[in-house]
Amino acid sequence: MENSDINELQRSLGRIEGKTDALLINQDRLREDYDTLKQDVVSLRFKLNWYAGALATAGSIAMLFKDRILDIIAG
After folding, report:
1. Is 0.90 topped by the overall pTM?
2. C-alpha dist (Å) from residue 35 to 32, 41, 46
3. How would you label 22-55 residue by residue, b for 16+ Cβ within 10 Å and e otherwise?
4. How many percent of the chain have pLDDT more than 90?
5. What share of the chain has pLDDT > 70, as a percent?
6. What share of the chain is helix, strand, coil (3-state, %, to 5)?
7. Which pLDDT score is estimated for 72?
8. Which value, to the nearest 10 degrees, does the dihedral of the CA atoms of residues 26, 28, 32, 34 take?
9. Residue 18, CB half-sphere, CA atoms under 13 Å: how many?
10. Which residue pairs, CB below 8 angstroms and at least 24 apart, start in 14-23?
């Protein structure tokens, strides 16, 4: 093997190592983004459940007042 072939192989290896490092950095960023999105979904799910509970409570209260108002009107 000639010296120039060895130099070319070393350059190629350096490029591969650089690309591997870049891929690992991107993988870490994607994991962080995934974790953040996962937390956002949990937070949104909690808010949705809270709003659904509040809406159900408001509906129940409205039904109670509706019955009272109809009783008053019906006299």
Report:
1. no
2. 5, 10, 17
3. eeeeeeeeeeeeeeeeeeeeeeeeeeeeeeeeee
4. 67
5. 100
6. 95, 0, 5
7. 82
8. 70
9. 6
10. none
